Amino acid sequence: MENLRDFLRISEAADYLGVSPNTLRNWENAGKIVAHRHPVNGYRLFKKEELDALLQQLQEPPDSSSSKTK
């Protein structure tokens, strides 16, 4: 496993995204985000770069070019 400093615990990741820990658990179960497991205690850990990518995805507006009429 990579350096544990590159990961956030579920409560930290939830604060970072502005959602509840239960929302993160639901997103993991739905396959929207990958949770890595701590090698010793099995807790969910989230890579900050993956959280940043998710935030970027959520902030991008939907493709509006298909809805425009000429």
Low-confidence stretches: none
Percent strand: 5-15%
How do the helices and strands follow one another from N- to C-terminus? Answer: EHHEEH
Number of helices: 3
Could you tell me how far the N terminus lies from the C terminus, measured between alpha carbons in angstroms?
A: 52 Å
Sheet with most strands = 3 strands, antiparallel
**Averaged pLDDT, please?**
86
| Count of individual domains | 1
User: Strand tally, please?
Assistant: 3
Strand order of the largest sheet: 1-3-2
What name does CATH use for the topology? Multidrug-efflux Transporter Regulator, Chain: A, Domain 2
Helical content (DSSP H or I, runs of 4+): 40-55%
> What CATH architecture do you see?
Orthogonal Bundle
Question: How would you describe what is shown here?
Answer:
The protein has a single domain, classed as Multidrug-efflux Transporter Regulator, Chain: A, Domain 2, CATH 1.10.1660. 41% of the residues lie in helices and 13% in strands. The chain contains 3 helices and 3 strands. The protein has helices at 10-17, 21-29, 48-59, and strands spanning 7-9, 36-37, 44-47. Strand 2 (36-37) and strand 3 form a beta hairpin. Helix 1 (10-17) packs across helix 2. The radius of gyration is 15 Å and the shape is globular. The termini are far apart. The mean pLDDT is 86.
